[in-house]
Amino acid sequence: VVALRLEDGVLWALDQTRLPWDEVELPLRSAADVAEAIARLSIRGAPLIGVAAGYGLALELARAGAGVLEGAREVLVNARPTAVNLAHAVDRVALSARRVAPGGDVAGAALAEARAIHGEEIAAGEALGRVGADFLAGAGRDLRVLTHCNTGALAAPGRGTALSVIAELAGRGELELVLVAETRPLLQGARLTTYELRRLGIEHELIVDGAAAGLIAAGEVDAVVLGCDRVAANGDVANKVGTYAHALAAAAAGIPFVVAGPCSTIDPRCPSGAGIVIEERSEDEVRRVGAPSGPGGLELALPGTRCRNPAFDITPAKFVTALVTERGVVRPAAGESVLSVLDGVSAGHEKPTGTE
Amino acid sequence: VVALRLEDGVLWALDQTRLPWDEVELPLRSAADVAEAIARLSIRGAPLIGVAAGYGLALELARAGAGVLEGAREVLVNARPTAVNLAHAVDRVALSARRVAPGGDVAGAALAEARAIHGEEIAAGEALGRVGADFLAGAGRDLRVLTHCNTGALAAPGRGTALSVIAELAGRGELELVLVAETRPLLQGARLTTYELRRLGIEHELIVDGAAAGLIAAGEVDAVVLGCDRVAANGDVANKVGTYAHALAAAAAGIPFVVAGPCSTIDPRCPSGAGIVIEERSEDEVRRVGAPSGPGGLELALPGTRCRNPAFDITPAKFVTALVTERGVVRPAAGESVLSVLDGVSAGHEKPTGTE
Which is the catalytic residue, given B229, B267, B284, B313? Predict the structure, then answer.
């Protein structure tokens, strides 16, 4: 799966709102094109959004000249104001453009920086996959892994985060099966993760989110491996709603609960999960089902039924057997500090004990 | 909500496949009519199926005479062979018919027995509601309760099981809110429980199943109250898939996890949850969403995506704060035997400690 590719000055983006049914690439030629694709979720996943926005700014500078820098920056950052990666990437590209000496190749410098960001994200995903596979491998049997939401090439350029770990295990011949939780309300597991696993040729089975705990308790899962949106300084993890129940079930069954994410998701300024505000999204996502902003949705409850729709939940550090980053593994459940990995100190690759 | 009613020799059944959008009653006039309505899930919920089947046999005897007894019995029992209540109710009605002296009113005796079963189920649900409300009330605040699946008048005649407890709390002015887990794959929570709560005028909010654990951890739920399909002799509970995760979250948060069901769901011959076979249902229920056997469903994943679809899961006794029956409360998590209630020994109505 190639979610984004640049060819002859056009950024081609796989339209994720139409997956898995239609594989359609959108040609994006300007900052406005990219911003619109991000806003309507054709491009999603925080790292992927950042890379796309970086290219968007570079494309705009090539198209319309250096004078449009500030306006284009504004358009892109406002596409989804909550995604930090987006502003970060756009600012990096803008800075590289501003540093070009008068008469120099502003657009070229911007494009080079956008490519650099893209390359860094790809490298982080690949490194993280190897680190995670080293941690999980050698269990004495091919692993049956449970995952949640989408953490592959559609969420982060290259191989993704948790799906990079899973793909690496598969490549080493140490994976038996992936159980994919569908991930209501927006069904990223059912729509996107099964699509990616099929393309990768990795055996998988789809389940409803509520089935995970019972299957874990029944001994049908060897490890839970999923991504994260933000990791607090104490090791508490914010991730897609439904994650915490999987963590409780893993702990009760004594199997490893492994969270994969680049170091950029660790937030040293956030002391604990209590400080992470949980975004409440539209009630319509619960009342109906279907591709986000896509046609053909289905109502599940009577109009006017009130809903709660927290988009994330918090898994306390004591349930996180391992946090897998591109720089190494940290074991919050064993009392290791997630900040150690930011200091460049890899906390080692010990095997899971299966007792946390 | 009246799921079943007998009027002028016709059994009117609310067609549950069309709820909550259309409230249509089906006129059932024969054993075959009733069997067909059960098979296509127009009538569902083990106790409700039993009552309907009892009436079905009585209607058939009135319509076609005592000679059809064995044939009609066969048709009804085969409508859904796994539902024990169905065979039990049909056999009771058949026995009452066979006991009529030659020349006596066979159809009248059968109808009287069917009415008796109906009345017993209604009485059990009402008693159970009072017992459960006694157990939960007096917490010092109006309760915010989380429930799963459908356990109201659409599942059992009268007031149902867990929803009977919830309605009783509401009637006493001790209920603030019901959080309803949608209950994928068949969405009995989203479709049926919200419908019943709206009719009862009880405040409620719908959530996806994966959101329950995070909301419980965030202190937004005072008790989990749900039904059961089978209770093993050691107190392990089989219930709709997704139940176990709610139990883990309740235990982690220190709130009561309350299971409501009539004594008939306790199976003394089944020593523990390990002996309960979990039914695996059609993969289509996971791959698609929509009313069962209804039109207008929506595909959620690519055709050919393999799925696992366990219909139930097992919650170990140690997580069951209270089992609420029509004869009283038992506290499996505190080591009390669920068999004690079968001996007519009520285990008392102590308040939950909130520490299990």
Answer: B229
Report the C-alpha gap between A304 and B317 in whole angstroms.
38
Nearest CA in chain B to A299: B290
Average model confidence (pLDDT) for chain B?
91
A229 flagged as catalytic: yes
Mean pLDDT calculated for residue range A207-221:
98
Q: Count of CB atoms within 10 A of residue B114's CB? A: 27
Report the residue of chain A nearest B306, measured CA to CA.
Answer: A205
B257 vs A contacts (CB less than 8 Å): none
Q: Left (φ > 0), alpha (ψ -120 to 50) or beta: where does A289 sit?
A: beta
* ipTM of the complex in this document: 0.89
Q: Which of A228, A195, A192 is nearest to A324 (CA)?
A: A228
Distances (CA, A) of A203 to A193, A199, A236, B306: 12, 10, 31, 9
Tens digits of residue pLDDT in B43-88: 988 789 999 999 999 999 999 999 999 999 999 998 875 556 788 8
On whether any CB of chain A is under 8 Å from the CB of B257, the answer is no
- Of B191, B204, B308, which has the smallest distance from its Cβ to A205's Cβ? B308
pLDDT digits (tens, 9 = 90+) for B101-156: 999 999 999 999 999 999 999 999 999 999 999 999 877 789 999 999 999 999 99
Contact A75, A120 (CB under 8 A): no
Average pLDDT, chain A: 91
Instruction: Give Rg (Cα) of chain B.
Output: 20
How far apart CA B172 and CA A209 sit, in angstroms, is 35
Q: Which residues of B touch A314 (CB under 8 A)?
A: 214, 217
Taking an 8 Å cut-off on Cβ atoms, the answer to whether B309 and A21 are in contact is no
Query: Quick check: B314 and A214 CB within 8 A?
Result: yes
Contact status of A297 with chain B (Cβ, < 8 Å): yes
pLDDT digits (tens, 9 = 90+) for A285-325: 999 887 544 556 788 999 999 999 999 999 999 999 999 99
